[in-house]
Each structure stands twice: as structure tokens, then as C-alpha cells.
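Action item from last meeting closed. Structure (254 res):
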């Protein structure tokens, strides 16, 4: 059966329309793919190992004096509720030495003595009695335990640092230690007013030296070469950071 000329024209126009529609759909799909923003890869988590190091803090030395009165019959006291403080996290132990210096000592004369009590921020008493020269106070130990050193998973070093600091032990950090001291004057000293007068010029002194230990913790990024489970192959990495603060203590005012 032969088609009329008008039918042929309609068929040709239909084919052209179909081809045009297909080309349009293809071009739209291609242009839509080109305009799509590439998806950014998600941040990967990094494993940071925690390496502890036991360190000695900067020592603190505090000195105070006794002013004896010529009419003194027994003893004189010294008190300071904010004698010293330590500005450090993760304090493990504190050692205290007390040195007493009698300002004027006569020949064949018994020295005066001093009793010293250090009170820690928890109210614990740490004392030494009848000090002539230097004596040690029993160490204050087990203040903070070593933190949990389980590796930290974080996207950035800053995030890992924040999580590490949340594990820190802050007991006794920036908290005041108090001191109380009693000067015990020897009996013979009471009978020597001239010597007592000389001590007004050269007063007795007590020096308290504080030494402490603390843990510093370092973040080390774990790499393929590191094997934290093998003590013969300790963790190594390309990023390190030591989480410490200045060890300078901020002692209280005399």
C-alpha cells in the first residue's frame, strides 16, 4: 500500500521530532553531570598513641623569718594559708625539705628548734619537728595516677589534644598549700637578752624547698610502620605534640 504525500511528510516530521527529543534528553543529561559538584571525601579518623614521660617539676623555694621579742618567754608562730602552689597537671608526688637557720648562736649553747606543718589542699598534715638544720618531710605520694593511655581516634590533632586533656589528673593543681611553724626557744636563750637583741638584727629563718614529679603526655600519630603492641618496635609517626604547660609554679604571698 502506498502512502500519500501528506502521510509521508507527517511520518518524516514525527521521526525528526523523535530524533530531536532524544538529542535533547542526551544533552540535558550530559550538562547535568557537568554541573554537579564533585563529592568531597569524608575526613578520615587518625589514631594517636599516648606516650607518657615522668618529669621533675621546677623546684620552689620559700623563706620566712621569725622576729623574736626581748620579752619572749615561750615561742613565736608563723602562719600562711597560701604559702605555695603548683601550676601543673598530673602531679605524682611532692617532696619537701625544711631548713632552719638560727640567726645568732652562742658558744656552748643549745640551738633553738622549729616545728613545721604543711597542710595540703585536701587538709592532710605533713610535719617535721625539732628541726635543727635540715629535715625532710615524708613525701606526699600517689596524688594523681597515670591516665588511661588507650590510643585516641580523632579527625584532627586538635581534637585528639582536647580528648587527651580531658583525661588529665588535676588534683592539687593551682591549689594553695598552707604552712604553720612554731619556734621553740631554748631555756638558756631566755637568759641572754643581749643575744636576743642581736637576733633582732639577724633574725631566724626557715626555708622550705618543694620538689615534685609529674607525668607529661605526648601524642604520636600511628603510622603503618609503627606497632604499638610490640615493645621492641615503639610507635613512630610524622606528627607529634607534647601536652605540657610551663612548669613555673605560682607561689602564694608571704
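Sequence:
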Amino acid at each position: 500500500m502506498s502512502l500519500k504525500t501528506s502521510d509521508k511528510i507527517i511520518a518524516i516530521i514525527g521521526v525528526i521530532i523523535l530524533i530531536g527529543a532524544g538529542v535533547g534528553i542526551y544533552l540535558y543529561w550530559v550538562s547535568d553531570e557537568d554541573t554537579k559538584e564533585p563529592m568531597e571525601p569524608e575526613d578520615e579518623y587518625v589514631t594517636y598513641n599516648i606516650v607518657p614521660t615522668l618529669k621533675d617539676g621546677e623546684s620552689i623555694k620559700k623563706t620566712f623569718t621569725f622576729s623574736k621579742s626581748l620579752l619572749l618567754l615561750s615561742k613565736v608562730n608563723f602562719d600562711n594559708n597560701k604559702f605555695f602552689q603548683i601550676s601543673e597537671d598530673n602531679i605524682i608526688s611532692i617532696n619537701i625539705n625544711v631548713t632552719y637557720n638560727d640567726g645568732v648562736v652562742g658558744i656552748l649553747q643549745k640551738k633553738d628548734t622549729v616545728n613545721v606543718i604543711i597542710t595540703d589542699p585536701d587538709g592532710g598534715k605533713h610535719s617535721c619537728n625539732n628541726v635543727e638544720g635540715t629535715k625532710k618531710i615524708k613525701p606526699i605520694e600517689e596524688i594523681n595516677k597515670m591516665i588511661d593511655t588507650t590510643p585516641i581516634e580523632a579527625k584532627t590533632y586538635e581534637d585528639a589534644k582536647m580528648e587527651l586533656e580531658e583525661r588529665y589528673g588535676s588534683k592539687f593543681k593551682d591549689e594553695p598549700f598552707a604552712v604553720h611553724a612554731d619556734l621553740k626557744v631554748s631555756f638558756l636563750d631566755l637568759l641572754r637578752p643581749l643575744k636576743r637583741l642581736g637576733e633582732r638584727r639577724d633574725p631566724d629563718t626557715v626555708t622550705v624547698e618543694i620538689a615534685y614529679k609529674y607525668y607529661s603526655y605526648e601524642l604520636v600519630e600511628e603510622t603503618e610502620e609503627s606497632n604499638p603492641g610490640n615493645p621492641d618496635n615503639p610507635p613512630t609517626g610524622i606528627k607529634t605534640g607534647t601536652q605540657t604547660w610551663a612548669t613555673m609554679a605560682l607561689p602564694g604571698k608571704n
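Note appended to the action item: Helices lie at 5-35, 157-166, 187-190, 193-201.
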